[in-house]
């Protein structure tokens, strides 16, 4: 198996992230997320397609389970238009429960021992809170693929990781597109039907890019496969009125 992504690929946040620093960059801000489905292998293809558009800035939020299906994250950071990757431990230090209080970041201990690993993590009132900053920054959130687990948590209102916190704190005037991907029997389960119904009929800021039928990675055949990655990109291009470099697009034309 080729090497896959790991939380340690980006052990610390690249920089402290504040949405206001990007408010006037003239770009369309796309927050793209993957969850723990094999279909996460399509993320590099989606990013490669989005790299061809002008005035686009993409930031990535990955659940820990999705990392199994992604290449080393530094490879994704090299794709044009990809401006950042945000992981759970960038919001919550991994070792929080085992970290003695005196070693936790605090404005009162400027020469703290953990400076390198915690410098961009919240430490005092007034510091940016990552999931809120990402929501402020994003013009759209795309979750492709969306696992059965994250679907259930979204509809249930859970917010126990970075992605779910962004979704829970979302400004409902902006769109969230989700592309569910799961085993056929999971997709056909009545609980999935009722969760999708909430997104499609009650939560109008959601767009469900429904799965397609094909032979799944597990060997079963039927509905549940993530919508074709190129169709997902086409939907985003149309929704956000993206312009190819060759079309000389900028936000003013959008
Ligand atoms: C190899 C493998 C493939 C998986 N594929 C899927 C899938 O396509 N869809 C899905 O809903 N869950 C799938 N799962 C299960 C999820 O990864 C698991 O429910 C996980 O908790 C999801 O976490 P997340 O929603 O936080 O990303 C798969 C698990 C493994 C080990």
TrEMBL record:
Keyword annotations from UniProtKB, A to Z: Coenzyme A biosynthesis
GO molecular function (one): FMN binding
Pfam families in the record: Flavoprotein (PF02441)
Region described as Disordered: spans on this chain: 93-117
Record bears the keyword Phosphoprotein: no
Any one cellular-component term (Gene Ontology): phosphopantothenoylcysteine decarboxylase complex
Polar residues: bias regions: 96-109
Transmembrane segments: none
Gene Ontology biological-process annotations: coenzyme A biosynthetic process
Domain Flavoprotein: 29-238
PANTHER family referenced in this protein's UniProt entry, alphabetically: HOMO-OLIGOMERIC FLAVIN CONTAINING CYS DECARBOXYLASE FAMILY (PTHR14359), PHOSPHOPANTOTHENOYLCYSTEINE DECARBOXYLASE (PTHR14359:SF6)
Stated family: Belongs to the HFCD (homooligomeric flavin containing Cys decarboxylase) superfamily.
Protein name, UniProt field: Flavoprotein domain-containing protein
Lineage of the species this protein comes from: Eukaryota, Fungi, Dikarya, Ascomycota, Pezizomycotina
């Amino acid at each position: 198996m080729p090497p896959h992504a790991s939380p340690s690929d980006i052990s610390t946040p690249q920089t402290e992230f504040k949405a206001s620093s990007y408010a006037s960059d003239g770009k369309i801000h796309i927050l793209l997320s993957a969850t723990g489905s094999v279909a996460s292998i399509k993320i590099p293809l989606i990013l490669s397609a989005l790299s061809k558009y002008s005035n686009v800035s993409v930031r990535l939020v990955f659940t820990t389970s999705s990392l199994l299906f992604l290449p080393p994250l530094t490879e994704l950071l090299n794709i044009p238009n990809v401006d950042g990757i945000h992981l759970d431990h960038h919001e919550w230090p991994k070792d929080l429960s085992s970290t003695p209080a005196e070693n936790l970041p605090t404005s009162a201990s400027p020469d703290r021992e953990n400076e390198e690993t915690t410098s961009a993590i919240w430490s005092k009132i007034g510091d940016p809170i990552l999931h809120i900053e990402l929501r402020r920054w994003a013009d759209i959130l795309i979750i492709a693929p969306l696992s059965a687990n994250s679907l259930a948590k979204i509809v249930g209102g859970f917010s126990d990781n970075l992605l779910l916190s962004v979704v829970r704190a979302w400004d409902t005037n902006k769109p969230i597109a989700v592309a569910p991907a799961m085993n056929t029997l999971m997709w056909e389960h009545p609980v999935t039907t009722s969760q999708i119904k909430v997104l499609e009929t009650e939560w109008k800021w959601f767009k469900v890019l429904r799965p397609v039928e094909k032979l799944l990675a597990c060997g079963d055949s039927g509905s549940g496969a993530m919508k074709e990655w190129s169709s997902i990109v086409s939907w985003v291009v149309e929704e956000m009125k993206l312009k190819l470099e060759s079309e000389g697009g900028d936000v003013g034309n959008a």
